[in-house]
Amino acid sequence: MDGDGAGLPTIAVVGGSGALGRGLALRFATAGIKVLIGSRDATRAQSAAAEVLASGGAGVEAYDNAAAARLADLIIVSVPFAAQTDTLAQIRDAARGKIVVDTTVPLVPPRVMRVQLPPEGSAARRAQNLLGPETRVVSAFQNIAAAHLADPRHPLEGDVLVSGDDAEARETVVRLAGTIGLRAWQAGCLDNAVVAEALTSVLIFVNKRYGFDGAGIRLCGVRSGQS
Ligand SMILES: NC(=O)c1ccc[n+]([C@@H]2O[C@H](COP(=O)([O-])OP(=O)(O)OC[C@H]3O[C@@H](n4cnc5c(N)ncnc54)[C@H](OP(=O)(O)O)[C@@H]3O)[C@@H](O)[C@H]2O)c1
Questions:
Q1: Burial class (CB in 10 A: 0-12, 13-18, 19+), 225
Q2: How many angstroms does the Cα of residue 76 sit away from the middle of ligand 1?
Q3: Ligand 1 pocket: which of 79, 102, 143 to mutate (most atoms <8 Å of CB)?
Q4: What is the average per-residue pLDDT within 112-118?
Q5: Can you tell me the distance from the alpha carbon of 102 to that of 138, in angstroms, rounded to the nearest whole number?
């Protein structure tokens, strides 16, 4: 991974026109990582890229989802659960041999405060099934609210649980999250993604019940600087 010649990957954010994807694009671009924003629509991708540039991110380009995935070293997929299957079909070929970071929470509106898991067990497992064994799917960022990512001056304090069947790919994503100031933890095999995915419905409930805008999680019982 040497997208910038300094060991950092070029990242595609598929669905980067949306709330979470745009926020991640902004944070990674602000951290000096080259980001390719993907969308089904060129105008939406360009407008998201322009917004990231205006907010202080550099090195952002706009593409359709498949082109962004093809040109990137590592792909983040940030689309609603209902759009996951179609979106992964668009990038399947381009993703072969790469790490795909799946952020999907299997929310089924209108009951988004209720945990509803897909038959595969998790959205991440579904992603791995759809992309095939040559792609290393890593699950992350389900418990980071887009609202916190939108302002690059706002420090990030939530922890990120990173699940995947390939330990090296998990560690790559842990380190990547670290570049934007997120404390991330390897959380075991891909099927463990069910925990982070299900937690999001709990966090949405907590937000509503207590009037928060982006509750997250933080591990306790760990020494500082140990991540
Ligand atoms: N928002 C959060 O705070 C947050 C936090 C943690 C995890 N997540 C998870 O991250 C994922 C993205 O969340 P989000 O809030 O960013 O979603 P979003 O803003 O609703 O959508 C993201 C992008 O997905 C594409 N998209 C939307 N509907 C689609 C459809 N029917 N078919 C194909 N593409 C579609 C759109 O891109 P184009 O139209 O440009 O193609 C859209 O900009 C979700 O799975 C969510 O559960 C979100």
A1: exposed
A2: 12
A3: 79
A4: 97
A5: 6
pLDDT value of position 2: 47
41 close to ligand 1 (CB < 6 Angstrom): yes
Question: In Å, how far are 63, 97, 140, 196 from 104, measured between CA atoms?
Answer: 21, 20, 9, 10
Give start and end residues of each alpha helix (H) in the chain: 19-30, 42-54, 65-71, 84-95, 123-131, 146-149, 167-179, 193-210
Sign of CA dihedral 95, 65, 54, 174: negative
Q: Quick one: which of 221, 129, 126, 140 has its CA closest to 182?
A: 140
Which is nearest to 183 in space by CA: 211, 209, 219? Answer: 219
Band of residue 3 on the pLDDT scale cut at 50, 70, 90? low
pLDDT digits (tens, 9 = 90+) for 69-98: 999 999 999 999 999 999 999 999 999 999
Choose between 186 and 151: higher pLDDT. 186
In short, whether 17's Cβ falls inside 6 Å of ligand 1 is: yes
For residue 181, report the distance from its CA to the centre of ligand 1, in Å.
23
For residues 140 and 178, is the Cβ–Cβ distance under 8 A?
no
